Amino acid sequence: MTLKTALTFTALLLCASPALADNWKMDREQSRLTFTGTESGRAFSGNIPGFWAEISYDPAKPQEASLDVSIPLGGLTTGNATYDGEVKKSDWLAVSRLSNARYVAQGFTPIAGKPNSFTTKGELTLRETTLAVPLTFTLVVSGDTATATGSASLDRTAFGVGQGEWASGDVVGKTIGVNFTVVATR
Questions:
Q1: Which residue of 27, 41, 87, 124 has the smallest Cβ count within 10 Å?
Q2: pTM value?
């Protein structure tokens, strides 16, 4: 095979290959990860700064999307010094031993009748427990910028968060709401 033939063959293979999904770079300044819960019947909320998402997404092929989110738990804050200290202890997030959570998902499924709305069935690993946690979100792409906004709900006790006297849900509610806004560019 001549060099010209090899180059032509290589060019044809490249042209015939399916388009690869775009890799998106998360904008940390504009992206937010927050949570809500209840304690003694009163609502509380918090913020988890420093999270990072690796995103692969082609608007023409949402079913091939992938998402890998690293969530550092040490910086979690509620604005209440007592809550912030307690939640990092061994009965709760055990941050000294388990400093990160991770969420991984493959494929975004469009929601019928709701433009720019999707679900994904990812898995959250928290306190060495991995469980399915579906997300529902909107995703709007404008030029080279994408904004995803969504939420999930999880039972903290399924992950072993709030052990011992805290496991019952009598004082601290079992349901934790998670909300996010991720802004990314390609």
A1: 41
A2: 0.86
